[in-house]
TrEMBL record:
Stored PANTHER family: ABC TRANSPORTER ATP-BINDING PROTEIN, ABC-TRANSPORT PROTEIN, ATP-BINDING COMPONENT
Protein name according to UniProt: ABC-2 type transport system ATP-binding protein
InterPro entries xrefs: AAA+_ATPase, ABC_transporter-like_ATP-bd, ABC_transporter_ATP-binding, P-loop_NTPase
Keywords: ATP-binding, Nucleotide-binding, Transport
Record GO terms (molecular function): ATP binding; ATP hydrolysis activity
Keyword Iron on entry: no
Length: 344
C-alpha cells in the first residue's frame, strides 16, 4: 500500500511571553522579553496509507489541530519532515490544497445564500474539475443520497444535518486524495449521525479516499475507524488497531450498582461516602485498586474478568449493602481512551 501521509520526527514549538503584572510589568515587557517555549507537537512519527480511515484523537489542547494545520500547509513544523501525497505541505500549499478536502463541524464551506448546486459549480471551477468528472461525481452522489432535495435548497434554509451532508459531498467533489473531518457529527441527532457515517464509509470505499477523523464522539470512531492514533500533550501515545486498543485492558466490563440506603433521599454526602466505602471494601477484599466512579446515584466499577469475576465483586458488595439494581456493560471505546489519557 502507498503511504499518503508521513510524519518524521515532527515538532512544532510556540514562544509564549511570560507577562509581568501591573503597569510597571507591562513597561518591562517592552524592553525585556521573557519567553516560554511550548511544544504543541513533540517529535511525532507516523504514516497513513492510501484509503485508510484513521481516528486522530486526543483531549483538548493535545496538539490535534496543530497537526492538522501542518498537514494542510497552514503551519510550518519547527523541525522534522511532513509529506502529504508526496508534497511538503507548507512549501506547496496550492498543490496540496488541490489534493485535500476539509469539513469542520457546524462551519460550512458553502455559500450561505445560494442553492447548494451553485456552490458545487463554484467549487468545480475553483478546483478545475472537468465536466465529465463533475457529472460522474453527481451521479455517484445521487446513488448515495437524495441529492435533488439538497441541491435545490439554499444553504441557509437547510437543517444542520442537511448542511453537514452537503459539506461532506462538497469536500469529496474534486476527488481529493485526503479528506479531513473535524467533528463532522457534532450537534446532530442519532439518525443523521448514522446517515453521515454511512455516506463517509461509502465514499471512502468508492473513491479509495484517505479520511482523517478528529472527534470527541467515540461512536463515530467505532463506526468508521479500524485504526486510531492518540495524541496527548503533543506526544503520540497510541497508534494501532482499535480492537487492540480495547484489548489493552483485557476482558473488562463496567459493573453498575445502585446501593440502597436507609434514608429515602440520598444526599450528596451519602453518595460520596458510599463511593469511598466501595473503594475501600474492594481494596481490602481483593488487594487491588479498582477504578470506581459515581454516575448520579449509580456507582460504576471497572472489573477485569481475566483477574476477578464480576460475581465475586457483586457478592462482596452485597455483604455490606442491599442493591436496588445492577447493570453490566461492555467497556466502550470512550472508556478505554480515557484510560489511555490518564495513563492507567
Amino acid at each position: 500500500m502507498k503511504e499518503i501521509i508521513k510524519f518524521t520526527n515532527v515538532t512544532k514549538e510556540y514562544k509564549v511571553l511570560n507577562h509581568r503584572q501591573g503597569v510597571l510589568g507591562g513597561v518591562k515587557d517592552l524592553f525585556s522579553r521573557n519567553y516560554n517555549i511550548i511544544k504543541a507537537v513533540n517529535d511525532i512519527n507516523f504514516s497513513i496509507e492510501k484509503g485508510e480511515i484513521v481516528g486522530y484523537l486526543g483531549p483538548n489542547g493535545a496538539g490535534k489541530s496543530t497537526t492538522i494545520k501542518m498537514m494542510t500547509g497552514v503551519l510550518e513544523p519547527t523541525c522534522g519532515e511532513i509529506l502529504v501525497d508526496g508534497l511538503v505541505p507548507h512549501k506547496k500549499r496550492a498543490e496540496n490544497a488541490q489534493n485535500i478536502g476539509v469539513v469542520f463541524g457546524q462551519r460550512t464551506q458553502l455559500w450561505w445564500a445560494l442553492p447548494a448546486i451553485e456552490s458545487f459549480r463554484i467549487l468545480k471551477d475553483i478546483y478545475m474539475v472537468n465536466d465529465k468528472d463533475y457529472k460522474d461525481m453527481l451521479e455517484l452522489y445521487s446513488s448515495l443520497v437524495d441529492l435533488d432535495i439538497l441541491l435545490k435548497k439554499a444553504v441557509r434554509q437547510m437543517s444542520l444535518g442537511q448542511r453537514t451532508l452537503t459539506d461532506i459531498l462538497a469536500a469529496f467533489l474534486h476527488n481529493p486524495s485526503i479528506v479531513f473531518l473535524d467533528e463532522p457529527t457534532i450537534g446532530l441527532d442519532v439518525s443523521m449521525k448514522s446517515k453521515i457515517r454511512e455516506l463517509v464509509r461509502l465514499l471512502n470505499k468508492e473513491k479509495n479516499t484517505t479520511v482523517i477523523l478528529t472527534t470527541h464522539d467515540m461512536s463515530d470512531v467505532d463506526a468508521l475507524c479500524q485504526r486510531v492514533v492518540i495524541i496527548d500533550k503533543g506526544k503520540k501515545i497510541y497508534d494501532d488497531d482499535i480492537n487492540k486498543l480495547k484489548g489493552l485492558y483485557g476482558n473488562c466490563r463496567n459493573l453498575k450498582v445502585h446501593i440502597e440506603n436507609k434514608v429515602e433521599q440520598q444526599s450528596e454526602d451519602v453518595l460520596k461516602q458510599n463511593l469511598e466505602q466501595v473503594k475501600d471494601i474492594l481494596l481490602r477484599a481483593f488487594h487491588k485498586t479498582f477504578t470506581v466512579v459515581r454516575n448520579n446515584e449509580w456507582i460504576d466499577i471497572l472489573v477485569n474478568e481475566d483477574e476477578i469475576s464480576i460475581i465475586g465483586v457483586l457478592n462482596e458488595i452485597q455483604q455490606h449493602w442491599k442493591l436496588y439494581d445492577i447493570k453490566i456493560q461492555e467497556i466502550s471505546t470512550e472508556d478505554v481512551i480515557k484510560k489511555v489519557y490518564e495513563g492507567v
